[in-house]
Amino acid sequence: MAGTVFDSQIYGGLFSSGEASRLFSDSAEVRAMLLVEGALAKAQGEAGVIPPESAAAIGRAVVEIAVDPGVLKRPAGQNGVPVPGLVAAFREEMKAPEHAQYVHWGATSQDIMDSALMLRLRQALALVEADVKTAVQSLGKLAKAHAERPMAARTYGQHATPTSFGAVAAGWGTPLLNLLEELPGLRQSCLMVSLSGAAGTSSALGAKAAEVRSAMAKGLALQDPGRSWHTDRTPVLRIADWLLRVTLAFGKIGEDCTALVQSGIQEVSLGGTGASSTMPQKQNPVAPSVLAALARQSSGLFAVLQHASIQKHQRDGAAWFTEWMCLPQIVLGAATSANTGKELCAGIAPRAEAMAAALSAGLGLIHAEALSFSLAAQMPRPEAQAAVKALCQEAQASQTPLRDLVARGYPDLDTDALFSPARQMGLAPWDALQFSKRADSL
Q1: What CATH number was assigned to the domain covering residues 362-411?
Q2: What secondary structure, in 3-state letters, does 113-164 show?
Q3: What is the mean pLDDT of residues 192-220?
Q4: Can you tell me the distance from the alpha carbon of 314 to that of 196, in angstroms, rounded to the nearest whole number?
Q5: CA distance 310 to 264
Q6: Residue 268: beta bridge partners?
Q7: Which one from 22, 74, 203, 276 is the annotated catalytic residue?
Q8: Where along the chain do its domains lie?
């Protein structure tokens, strides 16, 4: 088995993160770091920190030169970070020492790596956002089309009261829609540049530090934090938290869909499902299982990432290295969840007969709550609950439908209304349609 399922030639199709996979390759990291070095040089040239002609030369070289990630392996192993090796290789490739000496002027490795990380996280957020939107739109259509379709709601895995399939779809989609609404603010507050120098003081840039940082941020289309954030990992944590909640929202859909296609239930169809190697009658809920597995993995990794945010002094190597190991997996987990989830949501369809059968099974006990409230209009609530509990026990003992017992014992009650799932869904249809309207506005 490969080191991660996202990189595996065998499992990569099962855990496909789509275009996001290229963002966390060595070559993508090198390219992003070079872009940051180019933006830094441009900003410094404009501010007069380095010669403008050298800034222009560095800017051209960033576009023209490709540094092989393989040459960074040894220096990264020696220095703990790849930037010194990258700068050395880039300077050598420039073949212009008079200009190359100004590469990386006044910056530190973490400035380059954190800024490059933000460039890649920005792209990852855009990719996840697009897939989440597609999933929400599919769920919105489901919610609208099936707002009035009754099905059995479940609590603790058991039938509770009637709901509608549209409301279930809305329950799946609402967290995702809320996440989409959070995203503009997240981008504004967390996608930021880093330029603080060796110990977070920007001392090597002198009085021009703030000016250079602002211009560098503008050049990279990132935010200017107005401060050093080397050991304040809040921006990274908030982005990772958003991505984790995407994964968890899809994980919930995966868990529910797995339950809804269990033998003897099968209230939904999932579209493309998996075959068993030995049992030809089975159609396994592969995509839902992927979503549930990713949610479990990412929640564990996020706990480690949170712990890594407790960093000593002005830089903490061990904590920083821990972030490198966890964050890409969280990002790729969210991208895979969104990519898998959008396909699953597009293929989900209710099986009306199975839903109706589930509602009619169980001797009608699913309507016990409605019955207790109806009786409460005739007697005190505790007495009504006790009466309904006794009726339910009698129904189970005698295997007599609850409706028949009620018709005999309380002939004045409207059993047609009490035992009609379509009339006992409460606000479920309304909730479904409200979500559908929100989803349509995307």
Answers
A1: 1.10.40.30
A2: HHHHHHHHHHHHHHHHHHHHHHHHHHHHHHHHHCCCCEEEEEECCEEEEEEE
A3: 95
A4: 11
A5: 49
A6: 350
A7: 276
A8: 18-355, 362-411
Q: Is the pTM of this model over 0.85?
A: yes
Residue-wise pLDDT for 241-293, tens only, equals: 999 999 999 999 999 999 999 867 789 999 765 544 444 445 689 999 999 99
- What is the C-alpha separation between 264 and 278, in angstroms, rounded? 20
Instruction: Give catalytic status of residue 276 as yes or no.
Output: yes
**192 SS3 class:** strand
Tens digits of residue pLDDT in 402-440: 999 989 989 999 999 999 999 999 999 999 999 999 999
Q: Which two tokens stand for residue 390?
A: 């006794």
Nearest to 120 by CA among 220, 225, 6, 252: 220
**CA gap 26, 145 in Å, rounded:** 46
Assigned token pair, 105: 């002027």
| Coil vs helix vs strand at 349 | strand
250/103 Cα distance (integer angstroms): 44
Q: Which of 60, 154, 238, 315 is catalytic?
A: 315
Handedness of CA 182, 184, 189, 190 (dihedral sign): positive
CATH superfamily of 18-355: Fumarase/aspartase (Central domain) (1.20.200.10)
3-state helix, strand and coil shares in percent for the chain, rounded to the nearest 5? 70, 5, 25
Shortest CA distance to 256 belongs to which of 265, 246, 264?
Answer: 265
What's the pLDDT tens digit per position in 142-172? Answer: 999 999 999 999 999 888 899 999 999 999 9
- CB burial of 335-354 (b: ≥16 within 10 Å; e: otherwise) equals bbbbbbbbbbbbebebbeeb
Cβ distance 93 to 100 under 8 Å?
no
The CA distance from 42 to 52, in Å, is 8
